[in-house]
Amino acid sequence: MGLGTVGGRFRITGTVGRGNMGEVHRALDLQAAQDSPRREVAVKTVLRSRTGVSIDASGSDNAIARFRREVRIMRMLSQGHPNLTLLIDGGVDETPGGSGLPYLAMELLDGHPLADLIDEEPQLPVSWVASIGAQIAAGLAAAHTAGVVHRDLKPANVMLTGDGTVKVLDFGMGSVVDDPDQTRLTSTGVGVGSARYMAPEQFRAERVSAAADLYALGCILYELLMGRPPFSARTPFELSEQHQHELPPRLTLVRPDLPAELVRLVDRLLEKDAELRPENAALVREALVPLALAQLRRVPQARRPRVSSCLILAGTRLHWSVGLWLGLVRNHLGARSARRPPEEVHGEKRGAEAEVHACSRPR
Fold first, then answer.
1. Average pLDDT of 195-209?
2. What's the pTM?
3. What domains can be seen in the chain, in order of their start residue?
């Protein structure tokens, strides 16, 4: 996409990255005040479906209608949830001279994709994995409660910010990247990146539910623990066969010291039958939080870093410390806001902040 204005509102100033299905750009929100912290945003446009077919917004009425609906929902949810990227606007660029493509405009985050951390730190400590997974699950729980399924959860769609908060990106995009003929995923090499994290039912072109996101979360947790995804292949066809019919290597074969409850949780998330996976993302989060906090308590006080050293960048290597646990506690407020009326949530803000500070104090 050439430089210009998207949706008559967002002036493109540069390119952040390009992928198989779309592009991400820096942009200025022309409706924001000059001194607004939200003046600079990120704009993602979708060029192709997961199978590599070019998006035709004019011919995908159902998908585009669902996309618009999910954008409206996520705009409301993301306003108060720490694990959801703040969504500013979205839709189809139908302005005169516009691209005609679906787009999302969201907050410009200061952080790194989870994929970078996996590349730099294979086989992460249990506490890191549990904290990251709990925050992802909190974001999923909020969206699932509102009837929105991600459909394309993967490390590239999860951002680690400088204060230890984990953000889930691209909710709503699954509405348009899902191809009506998803069986083509087994005959094209375009979707390999996403296919590593797709649930068996997605390869069979069955109805996609929240259980598919939980399966993807299981794939991510497995990769964080093992340094590689549960299944690896060169083509979507091979990945399809593996996800539907094969079992990944046991976690304990490589890491026999892993907590049994964490191994059982990952195994349940990776069940082939969606009905056998955990009932919802909130339960997954509740199972992971104690693991994260228990591991933190085992760290001797003298070895615990200061809160100010949440995330230190040394070259391209990410060094994580207490920021992850602060991010974990921070998502309590967001998880509650998915279940309770806004007027009740507001009254809990002070209590949640106290909980964050309590977590950071040496024990």
1. 90
2. 0.77
3. 5-360 (1.10.510.10)
